[in-house]
Amino acid sequence: MAQLSIVSGSVGLITLQNPPVNALSAAVRQGIVDTVEKALSDPKVKSVVIRGQNGVFCGGADIKEFGTKMTGPHLIPMIHAIEAGNKPMVAAIEGSALGGGLELALGCHYRVAHSKARLGLPEVTLGLLPAAAGSQRLPRLIGVPAALNLITTGRHVTAAEALQLGIVDQVTDHDTVDTAVKFALNVAGQSLDARRISTFPCPRPAELDALFEDAMQKVRKSARGAIAPVACVQAVRAAATLPYAEGLERERELMATLFNSGQARALQYCFFAQRAVGRWSTPSGARWDTSKPVPVPKAAVIGLGTMGRGIAVALAQTGLSVVAVETQEKQMMEAKQAVSGMLERGAKRRGVAPVSDKISYSGNIRAVADVDLVIEAVFEDMAVKEKLFQQLSAICKPGALLCTNTSALDVDHLASQTRNPELVVGMHFFAPAHVMKLLEVVYGRRSSTQAVATAMQLGKKMGKVSVAVGNCRGFVGNRMLKPYIEQAFYLLEEGATPELVDRALEEFGFSMGVFRMSDLSGLDVGWRVRKGDGLVEPGLASGPSARVRQGRRYSPLGDLLCEQGRFGQKTGRGWYQYEKPGGRVARSDPWLHSFLEGYRARHGLVARRIDHEEVLERCLYALINEGFHILEDGIAAGPEDIDVIYVFGYGWPRHRGGPMFYAGMVGLAKVLERLEHYHQAHPDVPHLQPCSLLRRLVASGSPPIHKWREVIRKLHSHL
Ligand SMILES: CCC/C=C/C(=O)SCCNC(=O)CCNC(=O)[C@H](O)C(C)(C)COP(=O)([O-])OP(=O)([O-])OC[C@H]1O[C@@H](n2cnc3c(N)ncnc32)[C@H](O)[C@@H]1OP(=O)([O-])[O-]
After folding, report:
1. Is 478 helix (H, G, I), strand (E, B) or coil?
2. Structure pTM?
3. Probe target for ligand 1 pocket from 63, 156, 288, 289, with the most ligand atoms within 8 Å of CB
4. Which of 291, 280, 266, 286 is nearest to 637 (CA)?
5. Are strands 118-120 and 157-158 parallel, antiparallel or unpaired?
6. Residue 272 C-alpha to ligand 1 middle, in angstroms?
7. Residue burial 181-199, b: 16+ Cβ < 10 Å; e: rest
8. Which end of the chain has the least Cβ crowding within 10 Å, N or C?
9. What range does the domain containing 634 cover?
10. What's the pLDDT band for 539 if we cut at 50, 70, 90?
11. For residues 163-173, average pLDDT
């Protein structure tokens, strides 16, 4: 919807009305067409201002309409009619002008923006390109290199940058609409010949071919198989090399390919899934909209290892006062230096002053007595954490929330060490905690609604994508990782190499394969956990029992490497070799290959040829199968929660939507059939036995992912 009024005697003011972001739904497009027509034909109107209701110009095309039957006027002719009009049109940009919203503004003859506004063409992040002529107008307005950057990354720019780039004509700190109306009064009656961007020649930089080749290489490298960034480069190339009308036709063709692609569907699913996880609920009935968080002006972090430092920085950057506690002097000294470096770099990147004064350091745990929330990030050892929670329970003020950053340990057990178990929740950050977007908020059996709501809100304030999950070993992310890694180990036993497994996963789109990732995070981490679980049995070199633990198939490969001191990057050797301890560039290691051969010979294993398809099916379907168990157990409220965790925390390629979405794309029946096949071949691997929820979904006709919750609800109501 859109409304036209006349202000200051001769300015037609068109207001887009579709809260919250004035997305260009069919009704809004119709409203724009009607009001523009009226304004152009009304002799009283000498110029026009277009603005959005409620301080947001326009969030772009209505993403909810994608995939449905398109009705109403099309964007391109609508924007052309604005540009071709004989009265000056001024876009008054407040809040956001994104995607189709910015394309609408580029069809106007002038753009005035509030200093706090954000502008951009983020279509690429939805698997699309700016196909309402944005890919053709923007390069004509700001030049090819700048347009390529904006369109292929989808990044939002500030009003100041937009002014510098030439996207907007004026930036104001005052009322945007008032400023735009004054602007419109000033330009009324002036010639518009030089203001219609589609008529501009596109500036042709020297070395055009090299420029586009370079851009293509860059996007191919960073896109990890995503097709939209490549199409974006092709569309901008069309702007630079073809007349406008032909460029527009090329834009249309490219968009047609993208629009119906699985990648666009996956990315749009991710957009909504990211927002859906904010509407959390727990099996006890706690909900995002009925729970009240408590304010947290002051927080503490205990333990200043890698995680603790990142968490302290993230809290301080959010504006909280932070007490950072570390009892070991050497660690404290290193941490202070590291934290101040992180704060300085962060401040520089964001163009603000560092907030070092927000953090006070102490070697004494009693310093946390007056804080509102504590996050412990001490060594991942239950005995150490138990003792700490007992101490915290005695020291902290009444009502203070006690959070653990454990990545797998039992939150209920920790809560049982305190006087107020309802105040205990898990806040599982991902390293580096000041950078990674994901936060798993783990509610225990006795966690209060308020405690969950407070942790979720704090995560949001810290700029994290927070997902509420139930308490179980490894929560959602790490629990699913276990069968994935296990399959990778088995594949090595059966004939694969780390290089082959990693290549298959990286070609699928993961930023790093499982073995490169293991080298980065340290093989000793999993080793310690397996030792704690009583799985590591040194000296059991051969014989059938060497590969069976606790009644199931077990691969001791990781343990054997650790026994050799091969902990990954930090020791310069792991699944790969590195130029030095701490080196980053993984190189194939002949030692590892002959070690694998020796291992297979010792255990009577005959290497067979393993292809990429098997690597993907075994690793990914085992992980997905665990995802179904998690849904069945009620640890995650819905598939979106799992997918968001994997996309934001585990390098799952966003254009594949997350593991559960991917399962739906592949076809649940196929996933089930392949799991059955592999389980038959490996009956001693319980993780390959298809989950009953998967069977139930297939039996009920493999409903689309947004319907899975109904099946899960029915399942739970029968239990
Ligand atoms: C020919 C085609 C060419 C053009 C293509 C395009 O334009 S493609 C589009 C290119 N545009 C983009 O990619 C921009 C996408 N949008 C954004 O980046 C952000 O929403 C924001 C920065 C505009 C506002 O951030 P914020 O943190 O203030 O708010 P929030 O993010 O929480 O959203 C609030 C609610 O609005 C909903 N919703 C939002 N946008 C759309 C939409 N376009 N459509 C529908 N719905 C949309 C959102 O789901 C949420 O709903 P819920 O969960 O409450 O039911």
Report:
1. helix
2. 0.95
3. 63
4. 280
5. antiparallel
6. 9
7. bbbbbebeeeebeebbbbe
8. C
9. 612-718
10. low
11. 98
pLDDT digits (tens, 9 = 90+) for 241-250: 999 999 999 9
Cα–Cα distance between 587 and 190 in angstroms, integer?
65
Q: Which CATH number is 463's domain given?
A: 3.40.50.720
CA 719 and chain centroid, separation:
34
For residue 690, tell me if it sits in a domain: yes
| Beta bridge pairs of residue 403 | 375, 425
604: tokens are 């009577």
Q: How many domains does the chain have?
A: 4
User: Are the CB atoms for 658 and 466 separated by under 8 Å?
Assistant: no
In DSSP terms, which residues pair with 712 in a beta bridge? none
User: 60 CB less than 6 Å from ligand 1?
Assistant: yes
Is there an atom of ligand 1 within 6 Å of 122 CB?
Answer: yes
Residues 379 and 514 placed together within one structural domain of the fold:
no
Closest Cα partner for 375 from 358, 388, 357?
Answer: 388
Orientation angle between helical segments 306-317 and 329-350, nearest 10 degrees: 40
Atom of ligand 1 nearest to the CA of 100: 7
Q: Does any ligand 1 atom lie closer than 6 A to the CB of residue 455?
A: no
Place of tokens 């939507």: 657
Closest CA to 76 of 102, 104, 113, 96: 104
User: Does residue 634 sit in the same domain as residue 594?
Assistant: no
Catalytic residue among 37, 83, 94, 103: 103
Cross-strand bridge partners of residue 255: none
- Tokens (6 digits) for 117: 């506004």
Which is it for the CA torsion 337, 343, 348, 354, positive or negative? Answer: negative
Tokens in use for 462? 């810290």
Residue 123 among the catalytic residues? yes
Q: What is the ipTM of this complex?
A: 0.98
pLDDT in tens, 34-64: 999 999 999 999 999 999 999 999 999 999 9
Whether 211 and 331 map to the same domain: the answer is no
| Selected catalytic residue, list 37, 83, 94, 123 | 123
606 Cα distance to chain centroid: 41
Minimum-distance ligand 1 atom for the alpha carbon of 96: 23
Q: List pLDDT tens digits, range 334-344.
A: 999 999 999 99
How many Å lie between the centroid of ligand 1 and the Cα of residue 421? 39
* 103 annotated active-site: yes
How far apart are the C-alpha atoms of 657 and 584, rounded to whole Å?
A: 29
The string over 469-483, giving b where at least 16 C-beta atoms fall within 10 Å of a residue's C-beta and e elsewhere, is: bbbbebbbbbbbbbb
Beta bridge partners of 362: 325
Nearest CA to ligand 1 atom 18: 59
DSSP string covering 78-90, please?
Answer: HHHHHHH-SS-EE
My answer on whether 348 and 227 are in the same domain is: no
Does residue 266 fall inside a structural domain? no
Q: Quickly tell me which residue has 């071949």 as its tokens.
A: 681
